[in-house]
Amino acid sequence: MATPTLREGSLEAPTRHPLDWQSPAFYDEDALYQELERVFDVCHGCRRCVSLCQSFPTLFDLVDESESLEVDSVAKDDYWKVVDHCYLCDLCYMTKCPYVPPHEWNLDFPHLMLRAKAVKYRQGKVKFRDRVLTSTDRVGALVGFPIVNGLVNAVNANPLGRRALEAILEVHRDARVPEYRSRTLRKQEKARIGRIATGEPAGTTTGKVALFTTCYGNFNEPDVGQDLIAVFEHSGIPVTLAEKEHCCGMPKLELGDLDAVKAAKEANIPVLKRLIEDGWDIVAPIPSCVLMFKQELPLMFPEDPDVQLVKSRIFDPFEYLMLRHKQGKLNLDFKQPLGSVVYQASCHQRVQNIGQKTREILALVPGTTVEIVERCSGHDGTYAVKKESYDAAMKIVRPVAGRVDKAAPDHFGSDCPMAGAHIAHALGRDGQQRHPLSLLRLAYGL
């Protein structure tokens, strides 16, 4: 019998295996090192992902500087240098790697990095800073008190305060850190909680949505959430808020604290399930939070029917608007053109496999041209503010900022508010970015 030919890549759709994160074998360090060496060896022989993030240049430099010029002579302790630069953007899996499942080599680089982070976390090898920065809802709630809010924002805006912050928490003094709002989105829109409304179904949508505000959207940029509400209701889509809300769990996932992810899931899923059963679809303005419910939680809890239900009914805002538009249910009464727009499609929106829905919606506005940049901004929520990774984050964002600078558009931004702010920071134009939802509201003249 002839031996089957090993294919370099696969023409089949990539698939994700469930995460066996509750198995003791998942945390076996020897088994982890064996799998890291196997995967790193394949990556070394391929090198397609060298331009995506700092993990791959770090790996390839370790190999090229080793005695044998192969992975087998790279010190195991140095593997963590590669792991620490991975922020689970998923682009290597979705856009570059030819060896993802169902290929027989079965590479899932991001989830291998996640496993390594989980092992590291369980061993207690994480910094106090990282525990703090990933506790987004707790930090936001604390800073929400007016006196504390003013103090934190003042420290963050003061060079002397930033030097102290760098010394104490290892947050880079030059990194852009977001302002905290005492009047959060949930406080401003409290009257919407428990709202009863009738939607107009169209296609797969019910025509009424519950906004999962997200930690960042609630505490840092509530304006984006308000823009979403204005845009949706302008097209006859009633909006409510969940009665209560916890962090989606993505920051803790990236830290490797999977038990905290489980706790967040157990807090959020029952609330979202009840909303869905009452006829509400779910939307969130942060792509990472949508992805958490669409992909990561379903892979961590594949047998949980409630998790699978939420997965089926949560949408990216522009995905939702396009589904309505295809049924003739999007308000096209735009009042003013946007001119030229350059926007970065965030990684966690791209890996949802929904297509370029933001570009398609913005392009409906007369007198508007849209250029999309499909390249990572390098922000990741915490990566771009850490003392040790700030320079790498600025290196990653430079090509994106260069595209914006060259185009000199009327507007620029990103589906991810943090990515948009990071791009503006790289351009030396802090605060000049505009979220696509804000641009759509501007086009409507609302």
Describe the structure in your own words.
The chain has 446 residues and is of the alpha/beta class. The chain folds into four domains: 24-122, no CATH class; 128-169, no CATH class; 185-323, no CATH class; 332-444, Rossmann fold, CATH 3.40.50. It is 49% helix and 6% strand. It contains 22 helices and seven strands. The protein has helices spanning 29-46, 55-64, 79-84, 91-96, 109-122, 128-133, 136-143, 146-157, 159-169, 185-188, 215-219, 222-234, 250-255, 258-277, 287-300, 305-313, 317-325, 347-350, 357-362, 390-407, 417-427, 436-444; strands at 209-211, 239-241, 281-283, 314-315, 339-344, 368-373, 411-414. The strands form two sheets. Strands 2-1-3-4 form a four-stranded parallel beta sheet, sandwiched between helices. It has a three-stranded parallel beta sheet with strand order 6-5-7. The radius of gyration is 22 Å and the shape is globular. The relative contact order is 0.10. Mean pLDDT is 93; it is low at 1-5.
List the helices and strands and how they pair.
Blueprint: H1 29-46, H2 55-64, H3 79-84, H4 91-96, H5 109-122, H6 128-133, H7 136-143, H8 146-157, H9 159-169, H10 185-188, E1 209-211, H11 215-219, H12 222-234, E2 239-241, H13 250-255, H14 258-277, E3 281-283, H15 287-300, H16 305-313, E4 314-315, H17 317-325, E5 339-344, H18 347-350, H19 357-362, E6 368-373, H20 390-407, E7 411-414, H21 417-427, H22 436-444
Parallel strand pairs: 1-2, 1-3, 3-4, 5-6, 5-7
